[in-house]
Amino acid sequence: MVLSKVKEYSYLTIGSALVAAGVYFFKFPNKFSTGGVSGLSIIFGSMSSLLTPGTFMLIINVLFILLGFLLLGRSFGFKTVYCSILYSTLIKLFEIYLPMNKPLTNEPLLELMFSVLLPGVGSAILFNNAASTGGTEIAAMIMKRYTSLDIGKALLCTDFLIAFSTVFVFDIKTCMYSVLGLLSKSVIVDSVIDSINRKKSLMIITENPEPICAYINEKLHRGATIWKGYGAFTHSEKYLILTALNATQAQRLRTYIKENDSEAFISITNTSEVFGKGFLRV
Asked: Distance between CA 267 and CA 41 in Å, rounded?
């Protein structure tokens, strides 16, 4: 249990750090406001001469955390609190120890890619571990509890309003980059989550299932299900084996079958969600 928790919170720390790095080093100096708390912080920070975007982010996230505890009680996730505080603290530490007065490069499109890619990968790691950096995610949890609104659409509309508002605070170029970043963000998050969870579903048709199942059970430490049938063309007795493996295990099994049962038929498909013992929890 201890090792499992250490591993889990290591992932949460890495994910939060990636989001913080992408926001501070690429979003803040370029004024890319792609919605959420970071987008609001960029706008408020640019309109204020007293508080920086990092300070606004810390304030907003703390307020959301307090609201979460007040309105959601025990159902409010500790992992989200941890990530939200860590994320906001890292942004503030970056501002203190690594101050930035201008973008890292003179290539705004390149910087936009990193401003979306790093937070996208970080957010995907957090979402995959049932956590988030807070902010609008906490707002969504509160809205889901107390309203009948379509939360996804409401948050998307809010993010678009934040992105479009940059045309009034900055300029049309910044607005266009912000909208482009917003549209790219969800695609990257979904793609990374699918890649993290990707498994191989194997369907094997053979006349001798025992050695293959023994290899799956004893060498790969996975389970399998067997159906009995017959070939539509040959009318001979066949067995169908179904199993789910990771990419490395699938390659090992394919090599074993190739060397020991060359007549077997194998169908391998990618799947991003496998629920059950040894995979994702239901």
From this structure: 50
